[in-house]
Amino acid sequence: MRAAIAIGADQDEPLRVLSVGEAPEPATPDGWVTIDVRAASLNHHDLWSLRGVGLPPDRLPMILGCDAAGVDPDGNEVVIYPVVADPGDPRGYSLLSERHPGTLAERVAVPRANLIAKPAGLSFLEVACLPTAWLTAFHMLTTRGRVDEGAAVLVQGAGGGVATAAVALALAMGKRVYASSRDPGKRERIAALGATAIEPGARLPERVDVVIESVGEPTFDHSMKCAAPGARIVVCGATGGHLATIDLRRLFAMRLELLGSTMGSREELAALLDLCVAKNVHPIIDSTYGFTAVADAFAHLASGDVFGKVALDLLH
After folding, report:
1. What is the C-alpha to C-alpha distance for residues 215 and 122, in angstroms, rounded to an integer?
2. What is the pTM of this model?
3. 62-63 β-sheet, strand order
4. Under DSSP, is residue 273 helix (H, G, I), strand (E, B) or coil?
5. Closest Cα to residue 218, out of 167, 180, 170?
6. Is 307 helix (H, G, I), strand (E, B) or coil?
7. How many Cα neighbours within 13 Å face the side chain of 82?
């Protein structure tokens, strides 16, 4: 079968160790099933894997990809929840493509319990964008950020998958949303979604109850200053630098909560699908590639000139 495979690790030129070619059919342990993949999407996780982060040499070669939707052996249309219990991992779990082969292939084996019925109102391409970036954003807003207790949200670095998902979801939940981006074109697109687009570091007209933070060092001081008393600053990444400086006086004086976050539960993914259907929310897809152009899809993601998700149509 065709697959996108990490054949090595290269910190500086990750695309150099990406191979697109034939791979063995997936093995199916007890309780696992093979899914015929119809659509998938890329994440920065895939680029980090090519750099060797979380993917040691003894697990190479490895089929990449966390996100996919397809058809199970009984003909049901399904979305794949990509988290697998893993006692050998310090987190207690691993994602598909870390220990078990990933989703960027014509077929993938997953635990049967990881399958969720695909809603009729969303396409294969749309639901394939949800299990990592959109689920992360949903978990950050709801479980970690308790956005239902607040009225205003700040999303730093909108444009990427998680941040753009957070903007769309917070708006669907009826919140006032502010979103920052260095790119004027991305700010225009953020505003078109219904959020108030701002330049990085700009003063807000109000303090916010939840901050969605994935940039890190360049924006963290601004995130702290924009937080209302008792606000939650939820962090899922540090694309701009991981050594942020924190003013502890502001942290305790404003009673702020600084929360780490990653992924979400299977039940939350099901709730996210229900929300998308109920609120007519459609994942923002930057671009779609056929599988024969998967290397171009990776290059586009690596360029950083992306607004939303980069998706793969496995039928082409």
Report:
1. 30
2. 0.95
3. 18-22, 2-6, 62-63
4. helix
5. 180
6. coil
7. 32
